[in-house]
Amino acid sequence: MTSLSVFRDVPIAQKLEGSLLKIYRQDDSSVKMFLAYKVCMTEGGHPWVSLVVRKTRLQIAEDPSLNYEYLPLAGLKSFIQASLELLFGKHSQAIVEKRVGGVHIVGESGAFQLGAQFLKIWRKNLKTVCIISCQNEQCGLIFRDMGFTVYEYSVWNSTDLCSDPSIFVEVLQHIPAGSILVIGNISDCRFTQNQWTKLMSIIKSKQIFPFFDIPCQGLSTGDLEEDSKFLQHFVSLGFEFFCSQSLSKNFGIYDEGVGILVVAALSNQHLLCVISQLMDYVQALWGNPPATGARIITSILCNPALFGEWKQSLKGVVENIMLIKEKVKEKLRLLGTPGSWNHITRQSGTHGYLGLNCILRGLFPK
Amino acid sequence: MTSLSVFRDVPIAQKLEGSLLKIYRQDDSSVKMFLAYKVCMTEGGHPWVSLVVRKTRLQIAEDPSLNYEYLPLAGLKSFIQASLELLFGKHSQAIVEKRVGGVHIVGESGAFQLGAQFLKIWRKNLKTVCIISCQNEQCGLIFRDMGFTVYEYSVWNSTDLCSDPSIFVEVLQHIPAGSILVIGNISDCRFTQNQWTKLMSIIKSKQIFPFFDIPCQGLSTGDLEEDSKFLQHFVSLGFEFFCSQSLSKNFGIYDEGVGILVVAALSNQHLLCVISQLMDYVQALWGNPPATGARIITSILCNPALFGEWKQSLKGVVENIMLIKEKVKEKLRLLGTPGSWNHITRQSGTHGYLGLNCILRGLFPK
């Protein structure tokens, strides 16, 4: 057939993933080191998987009573319940009052994709999205594609080399009223009580809609409650918000991309309306969500012994990360590198900001 | 807090799923029977799962060498390759020429969601979608939400009680030039060579873009090749198209919602451009796709012994469905029900059109 391709005007897209690793591999330096893995690595150089996950996966595969029927559109009910309890605490008043709920989502972007679709249709007056984080957040792309105006702010203070809560408050004071505020990874940001009160009051008076991101509860401080404390604060004060709760990283099942779009509303009635609309979008996005990741997580969260093992494994990972940070600091000290490197061990979490300047070599991206 | 909810204008959405089953359960008739399950049921009343799937699931869970790193955005490479070979045949010229490819997608709607997003951006002149099938297709909702004008056509001939290829050709003659044509479940439509030629020539001359749906290859006739023969015909003649290839139903892993958006292009160069753009949308939709379903399917498709077992299990299901249809026909004959019921056993596939009139009771939906 000699006809023209219907795709003749489609150019190759700019590559989004893997480019940093590719450049690293092409680099012929003998002292190179890759510091930007997306997953926690074991000492053997493999992605970390909680041991209890392996055991649970096997138990599920061996279970002859399980059926593999489609999950409901909203997802696995027990998974949603267990995840909400993990986030807000087992005895959360908001859970008792049934004013927090969720939809089982797919992948790392699913919660933002779903939430953004809802906000675009049902909160038409919210046109601006402000993303505040101490790292690049992918969700900007999603909101931008849907026609929102997106601003991104970093809370990193490059003089004091820390996540700075006063930058957070300052940003809040300057963003437009009626914005959607995506609050990314800020677990390192240590607010004073005074700063918290100020923050809450600005969000309320400027009618800002918060959209939290909890990418790896438990992997910041090693303490599950500590990592979601600020969210519990918001919900106890009656704020309404969305939250992307991802559960792939803290269980080490990166390849199952599973989580919840959490909805906090003023009442159960409002919650049910929002969830029912979200299910319409789910139907169009992916239909019924995949079950494996959710089954593994639910089995662990609902079994006290397995839950204990998992919590312990999280602590182990966090301690190991801290140990690596200590070693880096010590090495820099021994080398007599000028400056103070205490900021390295002051930071909790899976990420570490070294505060080094980059030497640009060839194609090294910004 | 006494403030108004930001969700106060959000109504409850019309329920999309489960309403038929709900009404059935509420019906107090003692002779009621539910005929609209979405999955194949075993005699024990459980959703059918190919035995070889259970075995493979266990092997995967036991494999200590597997790592659970994020899959690439485009998905599991070996899964895509194996699925394309299943669809087009191992020795397909189009596969050799690398002008067919695919993206690993999530859920039953994922391929249409992804394909529709691409067509909306890159084929702006295609504004009309015509869906032709012998059942209701959910993808209409997806295209409609994105602003396409959607027309739906049935090939069911209610006089002769069969899927009628002449209706298909007639529809094609009347739809607007430059339409997207979604070709749903038409495996029951037995085209003559003449009708095929006519169909191809209309599609070409009216610059219609075909978007096929292969929801359960092998469950129509029990023969994998037979079920995708018409697609091989299209690709061998150099047509460009999209195809939603779902692999959940024919492996009995309904709860893993896994498949491929298949792209057939004129050349490898065009294909690579299209796939690269699709990956941009994947990044925003769900990020990296879940792996379990794809791993199970790949393990089976790439192992001749397991593949043989699976093929055999498909034949078993199809024979069983045919047996049920025979029994229904025989029962109607024994009861002396007026009319001919041969159309019941003339139909292949998981669905059966009885040609009964509904007695509307209370809330029974249309």
What is the structure about, briefly put?
The structure is a homodimer of 366-residue chains. With 366 residues, the first copy, chain A, is an alpha/beta fold. Chain A is built from 13 helices and 9 strands.
Q: Which chain pair has the greatest contact?
A: A-B, 80 and 81 residues
- Tell me the total number of β-strands of chain A: 9
Round the mean pLDDT of chain A to the nearest integer and report it.
89
State the helical fraction of chain A. Answer: 40-55%
What is the chain-wise order of helices and strands of chain A? Answer: HHHHEHEHEEEHEHEHEEHHHH
Strand content of chain A: 5-15%
Characterize the overall form of chain A. globular
Query: Sheet with the most strands of chain A?
Result: 7 strands, mixed
User: Span from first to last CA of chain A?
Assistant: 45 Å
Main sheet: strand order of chain A: 1-9-8-7-6-2-3
Structural class of chain A: alpha/beta
Describe this structure as you would to a colleague.
With 366 residues, chain A is an alpha/beta fold. The first copy, chain A, has 13 helices and nine strands. A seven-stranded mixed beta sheet of chain A has the order 1-9-8-7-6-2-3, sandwiched between helices. A two-stranded antiparallel sheet of chain A has the order 4-5. In chain A, helix 2 crosses helix 11 and helix 7 packs parallel to helix 8. Chain A starts with 18 loop residues before the first helix and ends in a 20-residue tail after the last helix. The C terminus of chain A is likely disordered. Chains A and B meet through helix 2, helix 5, helix 6 and helix 10 of A and helix 2, helix 5, helix 6 and helix 10 of B.
